[in-house]
Amino acid sequence: MSKIFFVLGKSCSGKDTIFRYLKEKKELNLKTVVGYTTRPMRVGEENGKEYFFVGRDELEKLKWEGKIIECRDYDTVYGIWSYFTVDDGQINLGKDNYLYIGTLQSYMEMTKYYGDDVVVPLYIEVETGERLSRAVKREREQSNPKYTELCRRFIADEEDFKEENIRKAGINKRYINSDLDKCIGEIVETIRKI
To answer: pTM to 2 decimals?
Structure first.
């Protein structure tokens, strides 16, 4: 049976780096699923690569067409930013295994849509102080740093990823990203076994 390997964790836990590594590891033969967002592109991002960047009108059209698998809205200091997954033909469970990245909420919705026998969580953890340090460094590299939004996201993650929520989602395995190579090695071993 095909699987969707779902990378998740708090912001600045290394999800994007791990996702890129797994995507580029040809022997795993994982197809990627690109999510959608209404937020502006960050420096270095490409439309259709990290996300499909769309306007609110497109989101509403997709909702009306019944194509939204899951959608998360964030009330940021810059307005509402939505992140969502669309049933747009990217996933063919009769054919391939997939790699996806998202939040705990999106993981739970994907599991509800596809089943917990299909969606496999790859939950990444990093010590809180290290995550904050990484977040500030990443934001400094932006042409227009959004520190207020960084703080909002950081605080929201603490609420979203409370232990009771992780248990409720049925996540039992954690991949500690204090040593990136070791963390990736454990994830690759999990994927190979499944």
So the answer is: 0.85
